[in-house]
Design goal:
4 strands; alpha+beta; 4-stranded antiparallel sheet
Length: 61
């Protein structure tokens, strides 16, 4: 299994495969050494299009 995320505005392409390192633009990336959530920076965002699709789906149920 593999995954790819492309952020065209940032010119970043993230790729990953199970059991292999993750990459950003051909350079390996790693997780932070941070152990406590209070000390971490967490960013989560969904695209507007995805939000609209979910809203439309909910409207039909």
């Amino acid at each position: 299994m593999a995954g790819v995320v492309y952020a065209p505005v940032l010119y970043e392409r993230y790729t990953a495969r199970i059991g292999k390192p993750a990459w950003c633009n051909g350079k390996p990336i790693t997780v932070s050494e941070t152990r406590r959530l209070e000390q971490a920076v967490v960013i989560c965002r969904r695209s507007c299009k995805a939000t609209l699709l979910v809203a439309e789906e909910l409207a039909f149920h």
